From TrEMBL:
Pfam families associated with the record: PD40
The protein's name: Tetratricopeptide repeat protein
């Protein structure tokens, strides 16, 4: 026994080993073996959960929140007192729109253990960063708990240093949005909003509805399990026909969505993800064959290799393109740009200027048939929180200061897509439905006084 390596290791650690009786010694060795086994199992356990953590962080980095969520849930079950995991779980739920309210208890847990020395991406990090207060405020604001959201944003602001200029600007914007939201909720418009209903609404998300100016033809994207279907439906006697799938005609594949159409319904615009770069495409309706041409990519003056082009709108005659892009030279992240089609092709895009564009994001521009009003989405102007829908009038060749379309079209959550018809008196948009975990399409008729 004394020559056994196990015995030697014991003796090195316990001076009085020789005084222990044989039975006690056997019991002690058995206990030590259990400890070694536990230590090995514990090491294997930590190795496994480190791999889970790395995978979850990878998905989070690439904003694949639905993929990251089950991994963080597994980690949270294993480490219920880890405030960093609770924080990461909150981030996932916050970025899955129909489940945002589920982020609140996780953020509430995270803010009880804030550290100034937060190490992002470290498996060993047990506490949460001060940004947990900011995202907690966003979650509260998105579900309309404005007073609690305001307190969370104010607490976050107190934790910031004077040189954290970008973060201070962001929290200032959120606090301003709280006041804007309170105003519009207290002074709602009498917009008439109704779901388009049967034949259009399915168990899949229906997004990005675009229409000719009559409002009787609608083209939209159905986000199905394995692909995005580009569907078209016509309305007769107030009912929408069963939609036709245009993908075979368009030769459309991959991550592609409807983003615009001309008022006569003859040119359809789409945005597609080409190797993590979103580019604009178009298809033309051929009346002789009663079909759509395969999609064609806009030229390099519009689609650049280093920026995203996410939404586009053509003028009535198709010779002027308004589109959103995060290309260099703008005022913020995504700006709205304009290009004109000439005999030489599409011109170099011109930024619409500081009246329209802000230091934040402006997307989804849509021009009315008469060319006198532009609708778009922004999180930089006076919003109720997140993205709201705005409009601007063309006056003396200058776009006016944008106006918020108010509640109930806009809410304290994100509204990112509105397509106008009949010169902006009506329109279509998509939003998450109450009691349903995906987006549906709605029609709105505006109260006349909204356009000041």
């Amino acid at each position: 026994m004394k020559n056994n390596s196990l015995y030697k290791s014991f003796k090195a650690k316990f001076i009085n080993f020789e005084e222990i009786g044989m039975r006690s010694m056997r019991a002690f060795i058995f206990t030590y073996l259990l400890l070694l086994s536990f230590s090995s199992t514990s090491a294997q356990r930590n190795t496994y959960f480190r791999r889970v953590f790395v995978d979850a962080e990878y998905y989070l980095l690439y904003e694949e929140y639905k993929d990251a969520l089950p991994l963080y849930k597994e980690l949270h079950k294993a480490f219920p007192n880890n405030y960093n995991i609770a924080y990461r779980l909150g981030l996932c739920y916050l970025n899955i729109p129909p489940e945002r309210s589920k982020s609140i208890p996780y953020f509430e847990k995270a803010i009880t253990a804030i550290t100034d020395n937060y190490k992002e991406g470290y498996f060993t990090e047990n506490k949460a960063p001060k940004e947990a207060y900011f995202y907690y405020g966003q979650a509260l604001r998105s579900i309309g708990q404005l007073d609690k959201a305001q307190k969370a944003f104010e607490q976050y602001k107190l934790l910031l240093k004077s040189n954290e200029i970008k973060k201070l600007r962001l929290v200032k914007k959120e606090l301003e949005s709280i006041q804007t939201a309170k105003y519009f909720l207290a002074n709602p418009f009498n917009h008439k909003i109704a779901a388009v209903g049967r034949n259009i609404t399915t168990r899949f998300p229906e997004v990005n509805p675009v229409s000719d100016n009559s409002g009787n033809t609608i083209v939209y994207t159905s986000v199905q399990k394995f692909y995005n279907a580009i569907l078209i439906s016509n309305r007769r006697n107030e009912f929408w026909n069963n939609p036709l799938n245009l993908n075979p005609q368009l030769y459309a594949d991959g991550e592609i969505r409807t983003v615009g159409i001309t008022s006569n319904g003859n040119i359809l615009l789409l945005s597609r993800n080409d190797n993590d770069i979103f580019n604009l495409y178009y298809s033309t309706y051929d009346k002789e064959t009663n079909s759509w041409t395969p999609i064609t990519k806009f030229p390099k003056t519009i689609n650049t290799s280093k920026s995203w082009q996410t939404f586009g709108s053509l003028s009535k005659n198709g010779d002027t393109l308004y589109f959103s892009s995060n290309r260099p030279g703008g005022f913020g992240g995504f700006d709205i740009w304009m290009s004109v089609k000439t005999s030489a092709g599409w011109s170099e895009p011109i930024n619409l200027g500081k009246n329209i564009n802000s230091p934040f994001d402006e997307t989804a521009p849509f021009l009315t048939e008469n060319g006198k009003r532009l609708f778009f989405s922004s999180n930089g102007h006076k919003t109720m929180g997140g993205f709201d829908i705005f409009y601007s009038n063309l006056e003396n060749n200058t776009w006016s200061i944008p106006q918020n379309l108010g509640y109930p079209l806009n809410t304290t959550d994100d509204e990112e897509f509105f397509f106008p018809i009949k010169n902006g008196k009506e329109g279509f948009f998509s939003k998450y439905s109450n009691g349903k975990n995906d987006e549906d399409i709605y029609h709105v008729t505006f109260e006349p006084k909204v356009f000041r």
